[in-house]
Amino acid sequence: AGLQFHPEADPGILDFWLERGAARDAPHVDIERLRVETGERAGRARELAIRLFDRVWERIAPETPGA
Asked: Which one, out of 7, 15, 35, 63, has a CA that is 20 to 30 A from the CA of 43?
């Protein structure tokens, strides 16, 4: 089992995905509401995504001595 999510998604990325048919197989999704929520949450989501990416990077590529 796995989980896929995109914490980097913002209104521009969402529009890019939607223009390419990202919701075509999800007729139950309220696209306009998704756009509104993405816009409302984008700022905080970006902050959290950066923190997540920083933590992942620290674990997979810790600083090496002398670098």
From this structure: 63
